[in-house]
Amino acid sequence: MRRRPKAQKPGTKYFSSVVRIQVDRGHVVCDSGPYRIVRHPGYAGNIVALVGIVLALNSLWTLIPAVVALIIAVIRTVLEDQTLRDELPGYRDYARRVRYRLIPGIY
Q1: What is the pLDDT at residue 107?
Q2: What is the distance between the alpha carbons of residues 65 and 6, in angstroms, rounded to a whole number?
Q3: What is the mean pLDDT of each successive set of 10 residues along the chain, which is 107 residues long?
């Protein structure tokens, strides 16, 4: 019986639902690919998807959960940035080089 390959997770190998430095996996700062443009490209992609959902459903009611999700993403990036700045070597320098968290030129 053949085993199915595991599904790829989005982002880097450190992408996780829990904010923590993964020392056991050799956690380092990733500054290539989309991480050269924004510090949290996974959340930025989710925001693009939210806009798409609102447009596809063509209803003002969809703005309510989209705005809630946006607020949660912003709060999460602030908390993640603080943890990464405090605990991940090299992240402070990376944050100085890559100024924007989610949207290039805006935030």
Answers
A1: 87
A2: 31
A3: 46 65 81 94 93 94 94 93 93 95 90
* CA-based nearest residue to 37, from 95, 100, 91: 100
> CA 107, CA 50: separation in Å to the nearest integer?
17
Helices (H), the chain: 41-57, 63-87, 91-97
Q: Output the pLDDT for position 80.
A: 92
Q: Which two tokens stand for residue 45?
A: 């992609």
Asked if 71 contacts 40 with a C-beta cutoff of 8 angstroms, the reply is: no
Count of other CB atoms within 10 angstroms of residue 77: 19
Q: How far apart are CA 67 and CA 52, in angstroms?
A: 13
